[in-house]
Each structure stands twice: as C-alpha cells, then as structure tokens.
Amino acid sequence: MNQSKNYSHKQGLPPGSLIHTGEVYESKVSIEYICFDENDFSITENNDIREIFKLLQPQKVNWIKITGLHDVNIFEQIGKHFNIHPLMLEDILNTHHLPKFEDYGEQLFFTLKDLSIKDEDVYIAKKQLSFILGNHYLISFEEQKSDLFIPIVDRIKTHKGKLRSMQNDYLLYALTDIITDNYLKIIDNMDDDMEAIEEELLNNRSKLVLNKILSKRKQHLSLKKSVIPILEETKKLHHSESHLINEKTYIYFQDVIDHLTQVTQNLDTFREMISNLSELYLANNDIQMNDVMKRLTVVSTIFIPLTFIVGLYGMNFKYFPELQWEYGYLYIWLFMVGLTIGMIIYLKKREWF
C-alpha cells in the first residue's frame, strides 16, 4: 500500500480512527512477551495477543514487543485491554508521524525514529518506533523486524547491569538509550566518510567526489530533520514529572538528552564540513581549469612565432631571397626547432609549467 492511498482512506474519518498509513514490511504481526524481575525472566512468542494478556504479571516488568503495524485488529484489542486512548493508537499506526511525547496520565506515549544508512544509500532509512508505558507494562511497536533491541534482550537474559532490578520506566530508558547510541554510530560513520572525501579531494583521485558530497548533504538534512524533534520530545519526557517514571530514572533520561545534544552539535559541525568540502571541490576545479588554460597558453605561445614564420613564407610572392638558398629548407627547420626550444626554456624559467 502506498502512502497516498493510505491517507486517502483516512479522509473524512473522525479523529482516533485506526488506519495504518505506511509501508507493510512484515507479512504478519509478530508478538514477543518478555517478563522479568531480579530473580527470574521468561520470553514467550505468541501472535495471539489475547494469550499474551493472560500471561501479564503486575508484580514484574512486562514488555510486550510488537513487530509489524498493519493488523489493526490487534491494536483494537490492545486499546480495549489497556484502555489506551484512540489518538495514541492512531499516532502509532501513522508511521509518517513526527517524533512525539504525550502524557496521558496513566500512560505515557513516546514515538521516535530508528535511523540507518545501508552501504552507499543517499537517503537515511527511517523506521518508526513507538512506546506505551503503563503502570506495570511497556509496549513497544516496530515497523520492521531488526536487531536493534537484541542487546537489551541479552542483558535481560544474562542479568547484566541493573536492568533486571529496575522497573518498566528504566526499560523505556534502556530502549531509547540504545536508539540514540545508534545515532552516534551513524555520526561516526559519516565522520569517517567525510574524511575519506576530503582525502580524495586533496589527492584528486576521484571525479565522482561531487556526488559523494551531495549525498552527505542529503543525509545531513535527513538526520537533522529527525534528531532535532526527538531531542525536543525527549526533553518533554524528562520534564513530565509523571508518576510512571521514578525520580531516579529521570537522571538516566538526562543522559539520553546529552547524547542527542552531542548528535545535534556534530550535525552543526558536519554542516560546516560539507560546506568546506564543497568549496574545496570548487577550488580544485578552478585550479585544474587554470592548469589546463596555462598549458593551452604555453602551446599557443610556442606556436605563435612558428605560425608567423610559416605564414610569412607561405605568401604568394614571386621573389623571396631565401628561396634561392641551396639549404634554405634545412635552415628554416633548424631555426624553428631552435626557436621552439628557446621558447620552452624561457617559459620554464618563468614557471609557466
């Protein structure tokens, strides 16, 4: 289903209508239920959401991990069971929604973007991630199956760090933290790419370097459009003072804000780097063009006197004194060769080439 077709389905419908607007990446929605506390954990895969509801344990951390957003029926069941506001579900299904944080009292809603660059792609791939934090549960929604949260699941399995001893709010922090860490990896990769482009420019090794610069400019703009709203919405979460987030956990969200601030600062630096690379590219082109023009000028300068001599003796007059010389042809050749060598030596001393 294309984007325009999905939006056309929503026209005329009341707010809160559940219509999926976005690409369908998974053939079916998959549901994974992860339940844990300090002493134990369990992982259950069951695509029947009603069976997952039966497994919920209020005294433990309950993470419902949903991959695939196109089955509206599942969202209707989730909304009914957890008493989720229809506008919240509508925002989850709208995968083109900007990053957003909303405090619904008994639930917190947070949606942001998972960003990635594959190989030499010009544009940054964006996949929507949404979270609903409740009193004893956290529900995550992913457009497409990915490896992004595998480190979090591994920490739960191995009891590594403090995750198992914390509550749902800390799990939300851990998930958002790994997303922002991924942004930093993208920034590091872009930094390496920029250094490689600069080296190519300095060594004049690539004629396609302009395309690479333009590609980085597009990636920069795409990143900036995503990261800045995420930073603003994360600040809203940090200042929400919701009873669903422990006071100690707010400190960790400040760390996420610090990472996002670092990303935005790096983006500002990259903007200057891209501008400098563009100027360097144009300067290199000017230098190369000047070199070409200088060589053409040298050739022209050498051939101007030769052309004069050839033109002079090519005039259609009957009497030329030199025409009667026995070795006149040889003399004129020797003169022109000597003149050429003299011109080359003179221009070389003047550092024309």
Quick take:
The chain is α+β, with helices and mostly antiparallel strands and about 350 residues long. It is about 55% helix and about 15% strand.
Structure description:
- By secondary structure, the chain is an alpha+beta fold.
- It has two domains: 281 residues, CorA soluble domain-like (Beta Polymerase, domain 2), CATH 3.30.460.20; 63 residues, Magnesium transport protein CorA, transmembrane region (Methane Monooxygenase Hydroxylase, Chain G, domain 1), CATH 1.20.58.340.
- The chain is built from nine helices and seven strands.
- A seven-stranded mixed β-sheet has the order 2-1-3-7-6-5-4, with helices on both faces.
Annotation keywords:
Beta Polymerase, domain 2, seven-stranded mixed beta sheet, 9 helices, 13% strand, rod-shaped
Strand order of the largest sheet: 2-1-3-7-6-5-4
CATH architecture of the largest domain: 2-Layer Sandwich
Structural class: alpha+beta
Task: Tell me the span between the first and last alpha carbons.
Answer: 62 Å
DSSP E strands, number: 7
**Uncertain residue segments:** 1-5
Look at the structure and give the CATH class of the largest domain.
Answer: Alpha Beta
Could you report the average pLDDT, rounded to the nearest whole number? 84
CATH homologous superfamily classification of the largest domain: CorA soluble domain-like
Q: What's the number of helices?
A: 9
Largest sheet: 7 strands, mixed
- Sum up the overall morphology in one term: rod-shaped
Layout: helices, strands, pairs:
Elements: H1 3-10, E1 30-36, E2 41-45, H2 49-55, E3 61-67, H3 72-82, H4 86-93, E4 100-103, E5 108-116, E6 125-133, E7 137-142, H5 150-158, H6 168-203, H7 209-238, H8 249-313, H9 328-349
